[in-house]
Specification:
This protein is α+β, with helices and mostly antiparallel strands. The chain is built from one helix and four strands. The structure holds zinc ion. Zinc ion binds next to loops.
């Protein structure tokens, strides 16, 4: 899905932006300023922790405490 965003700096419309992929960040094609649409910040994905990564982190923690 793409979005049309009005640049808060210069007020021009940037069309067909992939805001979900950039977490709301866009670089205005007219004035070049980078801005973030804050409503997309909530959509930041929580990283999935796999069991093998957890075990590795535990081992590193144990080594650090030793
Ligand atoms: Zn702009």
């Amino acid at each position: 899905m793409t979005y049309d965003v009005v640049c808060p700096i210069c007020g021009r419309i940037n069309r067909s932006l992939y805001l979900e992929e950039t977490e709301g960040w866009m670089e205005c094609e007219y004035c070049g300023n980078s801005t973030q649409d804050l409503s997309f910040r909530k959509m930041v994905r929580v990283p999935v922790i796999r069991m093998d990564q957890l075990k590795q982190a535990g081992m590193q923690l144990a080594a650090a405490n030793a």
